[in-house]
Design brief:
The structure holds two protein chains of two kinds. Chain A is mainly α. Chain A has twelve helices and no strands. Helix content of chain A is 78%, strand content 0%. In chain A, helix 9 packs across helix 10. By secondary structure, chain B is of the alpha/beta class. The longest helix of chain B is centred in the C-terminal third of the chain and has 16 residues. Chain B is globular and about 50 Å long. The termini of chain B are far apart. Classes of the chains: A mainly alpha, B alpha/beta. Chains A and B meet through helix 7, helix 8 and helix 11 of A and helix 2 and helix 3 of B.
């Protein structure tokens, strides 16, 4: 029983919690910069990049996948600018065209080129494979699932980034125009942030599917928004709700149904997203200062 | 010594628009004066400020104290329109005021306690020290405008650009803003203010720049505000011809 927990549940919980915290931290900036849908968009755009990275390396190699994903992001940015200028349409519409097309291309690549060789298909892309994370010899770090290492490294990188550039992130998020007049490179800051968002989208996506990425970029940050009056506490509270959603969502999906005597557990990614949405709803209604039903 | 702001043949043409927003404006700012930039809605007043600060593409030449702006960023301060930021942002009045010091603190350096004390002194100048810890969305419009002014003061510049600082503020705030503007002028600073209310231009400002796509007039406020000039700037809309 304990072995089973250590081999199957613990690594899955670690992946879920790490992915959720990472997304929640970056998501706070996305929400405050009114770019919340960028997380959604990038998690779609990266799919063909991941597929091509996989084709090139021949197996699931995080470095190839991330390289492919970043290349896909660059291609998308170029395409969006081209369509905006030549097609004479507004940026939102140009983004919509590119993101959906890229995602569709990714699905086609997965279905035709890869699906037969490895467990990486459209289903996997949406719901992830949280339940398949497996630690063969618990305690032996050499056999620790690579998703945990990738996400852990990314979380450390992002924490350092936020710590070093806290002031720059604050001013470019709150008042990019003032930041520019002061000589801060607003576009560089934005590019760095988007790169981290893309890397996080890939790492979380590979570990837990795009549903969790989309939910975690927005829900914990939006929940914290209802509760916090300064940027630091916004980040802590968002990270906390991310972690809580990851942990609770997994327990509700994987363990509770079995305790209740059901034969099948539920989709962990789906339940984590639902849990995050539930916290958001509660905060929206009952937050002490900003809740709709406060008094 | 070169003047604080020298603009030659400045033109701005926004993407996908037929008419230029500004065309061929040349202007020398009067050093140590309080200048109002006036003109009808859509005359290009904010565009003028944005172009001069390099925020939008333009043609022509802009020099700040005799040099290109990029080498003089520490000498300018900008107070944008209040509507340009999200007042629900999780940030306190003190944090906003401290942002004025970011340019001087520099890239990747941290905001220290000393900086916060300094920021507080600027909040005090606009009578907002008591609200230092308040989230900015919890302040009235006039109070928000004063926090913005404190941030602008913290930039400790020689040339100030302010976009509609007096728009829609209460009497107390108006008095505070005007007294700060006069104090800056007394300290020898050059201040350019986009202003919407023709009635009060003469009371608050000693110089004026009248724009409508191009420069209509400039000089002492009273001389700029002649019926002739105003008729030229505020010409009757074309639609009345059709009717």
């Amino acid at each position: 029983m304990l072995d089973e927990f250590l081999q199957i549940d613990l690594p899955a919980i670690l992946v879920a919690v790490l992915a959720s915290i990472t997304c929640a931290l970056l998501g706070s900036f996305l929400v405050l910069r009114k770019q919340a849908l960028m997380g959604d968009a990038l998690s779609h755009v990266v799919l063909p990049g991941i597929a091509v990275g996989f084709l090139l390396s021949g197996h699931i190699n995080p470095l190839y996948m991330m390289g492919g994903a970043l290349a896909a992001c660059l291609v998308s940015v170029l395409l969006i600018n081209m369509i905006k200028t030549w097609g004479k349409i507004e940026p939102g519409a140009a983004m919509g065209i590119v993101f959906t097309t890229m995602f569709a291309l990714g699905i086609v690549l997965l279905e035709t080129k890869i699906g037969s060789k490895v467990h990486l298909d459209a289903q996997h892309a949406l719901y992830g494979a949280l339940e398949l994370t497996y630690w063969p010899e618990p305690g032996n770090l050499a056999t620790l699932p690579h998703q945990i290492i990738t996400l852990g490294a990314l979380l450390i990188l992002i924490t350092i980034f936020i710590f070093l550039f806290f002031k720059e992130l604050k001013i470019t998020s709150f008042d990019p125009i003032l930041a520019t007049t002061m000589g801060f490179k607003t576009s560089h800051m934005n590019a760095a942030l988007m790169t981290l968002v893309a890397l996080t989208a890939v790492a979380s996506f590979e570990a837990a599917g795009s549903i969790i990425v989309i939910a975690m970029f927005i829900c914990p940050a939006a929940t914290a928004r209802m509760l916090c009056d300064d940027l630091k506490s916004q980040l802590y509270v968002a990270a906390m709700f991310g972690a809580l959603s990851g942990l609770l969502g997994y327990i509700l999906a994987a363990l509770v149904p079995l305790w209740l005597g059901f034969e099948h557990s539920l989709s962990a990614s789906g339940m984590i997203a639902v849990t995050a949405g539930f916290f958001q709803m509660i905060a929206m209604l009952f937050a002490p200062k900003y809740g709709a039903l406060r008094n | 010594m070169p003047g604080p702001l020298s603009v030659k043949n400045l033109s701005v043409h926004y993407h996908l628009q037929d008419e230029p927003a500004l065309s061929d404006v040349s202007y020398e700012a009067a050093p140590g004066h309080l200048t109002a930039i006036i003109g009808p809605n859509g005359a290009g007043k904010s565009t003028f400020l944005k172009a001069v600060m390099g925020l939008i593409p333009y043609t022509g030449e802009v020099k700040v104290f005799g040099q290109p702006l990029k080498d003089q960023k520490h000498k300018i301060a900008y107070m944008p329109q209040r509507s340009s930021v999200d007042w629900d942002f999780p940030i306190s009045a003190l944090d906003v005021a401290a942002m004025g010091l970011y340019g001087q603190i520099g890239f990747m350096r941290r905001v220290t306690k000393q900086h916060k004390t300094e920021a507080l002194s600027y909040l005090d100048q606009v009578d907002m020290a008591d609200y230092a810890d308040r989230q900015i969305g919890q302040l009235s419009g006039g109070q928000q405008q004063r926090v913005f002014l404190a941030r602008t003061l913290a930039q400790n510049a020689d040339l100030y650009f302010m976009d509609e600082p007096l728009a829609g503020v209460d009497i107390t705030t108006e008095k505070i803003i005007i007294s700060i503007l006069e104090k800056l002028k007394k300290d020898g600073k050059t201040i350019l203010v986009v202003h919407h209310d023709l009635q009060s231009v003469g009371n608050f400002f000693d110089k004026a720049l009248l724009l409508n796509q191009t420069k209509i007039a400039e000089g002492p406020a009273k001389k700029v505000l002649t019926p002739d000039n105003l008729a030229k700037a505020y010409k009757t809309p074309v639609l009345t011809d059709v009717a």
